[in-house]
TrEMBL record:
Belongs to the FAD-binding oxidoreductase/transferase type 4 family. The lineage of its organism: Bacteria, Pseudomonadati, Pseudomonadota, Betaproteobacteria, Burkholderiales. Pfam families: FAD-oxidase_C, FAD_binding_4. Residues 33-214 form the FAD-binding PCMH-type domain. Gene3D superfamilies: 3.30.465.10, 3.30.70.2190, 3.30.70.2740, Uridine Diphospho-n-acetylenolpyruvylglucosamine Reductase, domain 2, Vanillyl-alcohol Oxidase, Chain A, domain 4. This is FAD/FMN-containing dehydrogenase. Keywords: FAD, Flavoprotein.
Length: 471
């Protein structure tokens, strides 16, 4: 009996997809990577995942975990060999339990992020991980890439929101580590090792996640600014004025938002006159544990002082939930508008906040020197130093021309990131896209230690091979 037949015998033929049925799992979300596989399997439990992994190990077949297939780096796409088995966790989508006394929830890896948020809210709690793809991405993928999103400033990224994991190892064993403990000093932190490993060390099948009290009141504001330096200066002031209540601080170039409203005329920048044409905008959110009146008073005090001092030129404060959602929708529409307007070269980088303006200024100049007229598309999570620094073709350049020179663009941007003590991947991961870039920016010792861990936990290199590390 061959591997596909064995998998059909284990899971049932309807849960083993081949041919056209498997095709949607073999192309990444951006359409940049295309792979082949013996089959796509859809197990319904950690026990079934473990049995699938054991079968694949017996047949020396690589396994590629798949969640919502929203990876931006080709991390969930198999290679062209056709030997891999893609393990879709889509059927493992249950919220197993919610413990409001311990403020934890146990969820399966295939659970859609938005479903976690809704389940938490239904129990009177907040699950704060939030990002543009939350309606389709899964918590397993979020953990595999250590996702960040818009509230890292207050709550941290996926790693910091996780207390315990259930993981299927490369040998097909199940590590039952779903402990909802804030303190556990009993050895190496395996949880943190698997989070961010993009399925190269094992397959996360469930997780125990932190919950928080729902805020009593939230306030959202869009700010108009003249420079990125002013945005950084106001961020420092906002942290001092709001403390832990500051849950989000996004920044966007003015022309980027203009592109959104031009493409989606039902949306609008919430300013009239010159402020609507500001070079930069910021979006911030305050979550208050006291009252709506207290939140409003703090907002007006901090924003008013910043306007008087010239740090911000104008502020639009959302007066209701609909206006708040409209502001966030404007920000979250940027990636969609980018996709509709054409191809661009995307960078997900993190920079120390103190030098982020210098990074943008220096990198813009370097790109213009090599590619005159190239377009900068800059937005991101200023509160945690994460910029989506993207570039599109110049007016006299076709998209194809730009893509043919994308690695020259990568080198300019990533060299600048490195020079400013940053990271070439903040929240999207490495996958296939940035795998060959790592040796340029990681020390030889760092890569050696990573390879030792990989060999120790996956000696046969069957867990999502070709991702993060070069073979």
């Amino acid at each position: 009996m061959n591997l596909v037949e064995s998998l059909q015998d284990l899971l049932g033929s309807e849960q083993v997809l081949t041919g056209e049925l498997a095709a949607p799992y073999l192309t990444d979300w951006r359409g940049r990577f295309q792979g082949q596989a013996q089959a796509v399997v859809r197990p319904a439990s950690a026990e079934e995942v473990a049995k699938v992994v054991k079968l694949c190990a017996l047949h020396r077949a690589p396994v590629v975990p798949s969640g919502g297939n929203t990876s931006l780096c080709g991390a969930a796409t198999p290679d062209q060999s056709g030997q891999a088995v893609v393990i879709s966790l889509a059927r493992m989508n249950q919220v197993r339990s919610i413990d409001t006394d311990n403020d934890t929830m146990v969820v399966e890896a295939g659970c859609i992020l938005q479903s976690l948020q809704e389940a938490a809210r239904g129990a009177g709690r907040l699950f704060p991980l939030s990002l543009a793809a939350e309606g389709s991405c899964t918590i397993g993928g979020n953990l595999a890439t250590n996702a960040g999103g818009t509230q890292v400033l207050r709550y941290g990224n996926a790693r910091e929101l996780t207390l315990g994991l259930e993981v299927v190892t490369a040998e097909g064993e199940i590590w039952h580590g779903l402990r909802g403990l804030r303190k556990d000093n009993t050895g190496y932190d395996l949880r943190d090792l698997y989070i961010g490993s993009e399925g190269t060390l094992g397959i996360i099948t469930a997780a125990a996640m932190k919950l928080y009290p729902l805020p009593v009141a939230q306030r959202t504001a869009m700010l108009a600014l003249n420079t990125l330096e002013d945005a950084v200066a106001f961020l420092s002031r906002a942290r001092a004025g709001f403390g832990a209540s500051l849950t989000g601080f996004e920044v966007m170039e003015g022309h980027v938002l203009e592109g959104v409203v031009k493409l989606y005329p039902q949306q609008r920048i919430p300013f009239d006159g010159p402020s609507a044409k500001s070079p930069w905008f910021a979006l911030l959110e305050l979550s208050d544990s006291e009252s709506a009146e207290h939140a409003q008073e703090r907002f007006e005090t901090v924003l008013g002082a910043a306007i008087e001092d010239g740090l911000i030129t104008d502020a639009a404060i959302a007066e209701n939930i609909a206006q708040s959602k409209a502001m966030w929708h404007l920000r979250e529409s940027i990636p969609l508008s980018e996709a509709e307007l054409g191809k661009s070269i995307k960078h997900d980088v993190s920079i120390p906040i103190s030098v982020i303006a210098a990074f943008v200024r220096t990198t813009n100049a370097a790109l213009q020197a090599s590619f005159p007229g190239i377009k900068h598309i800059i937005f991101g999570h200023l509160g945690d130093g994460n910029l989506h620094y993207n570039v599109a073709n110049a007016p006299d350049q076709t998209e194809e021309d730009l893509m043919n020179r994308q690695y020259e663009v990568y080198q300019i941007v990533h060299d600048s990131v490195h020079a400013h003590q940053g990271s070439i991947s903040a929240e999207h991961g490495v996958g296939q896209l940035k795998r060959d870039e790592l040796p340029r920016y990681k020390s030889e010792l760092e890569l050696t230690l990573m390879k030792r861990i990989k060999r120790a936990l996956d000696p046969d290199n069957l867990m999502n091979p070709g991702k993060i590390l070069q073979s």
